[in-house]
């Protein structure tokens, strides 16, 4: 039986994916020329993974009290991703950075 998702949940998952993709393209500079995006829905979760050739960025937590500086034109992507998804992991490595985002939908 197909499950209908709330439009707000869909919007938030898509926005989180867009932010991760922006981070792969803009700040990371797409070092090796390849960006991989994978997504799946399984077991009551929607997951998205974005892999790039960049070195990664530091993130100091997802506490909304310590949000990004609204006066700056950049720097809100990971904050937004953490705000909209339930589980977020950022793994920098020699071959690039992988951002995995999971939203519980059940």
What would you note in describing this structure?
This protein has 106 residues and is α+β, with helices and mostly antiparallel strands. It has helices at residues 7-25, 77-84, and strands spanning 36-42, 45-52, 87-93, 96-104. The protein has 2 helices and 4 strands, in the order αββαββ. A 4-stranded antiparallel beta sheet has the order 1-2-4-3, with helices on one face. α1 (7-25) packs antiparallel against α2. It is globular and about 35 Å long. 23% of the residues are buried. The model has no long low-confidence stretch (mean pLDDT 79).
Give a nutshell description of this structure:
The chain is 25% helix and 29% strand. It has helices at residues 7-25, 77-84; strands at 36-42, 45-52, 87-93, 96-104.
Through-space gap between termini? 13 Å
Question: Count of DSSP E strands?
Answer: 4
Q: What is the average of the pLDDT values?
A: 79
Helix content: 25-40%
Class computed from helices, strands and strand pairing: alpha+beta
Sum up the overall morphology in one term: globular
Rounded Rg: 14 Å
Across the major sheet, the strand order is: 1-2-4-3
Write the topology of this structure:
Elements (H helix, E strand, L loop, with lengths): L6 H19 L10 E7 L2 E8 L24 H8 L2 E7 L2 E9 L2
Antiparallel strand pairs: 1-2, 2-4, 3-4
Question: What are the key terms here?
Answer:
single chain, alpha+beta, 2 helices, 4 strands
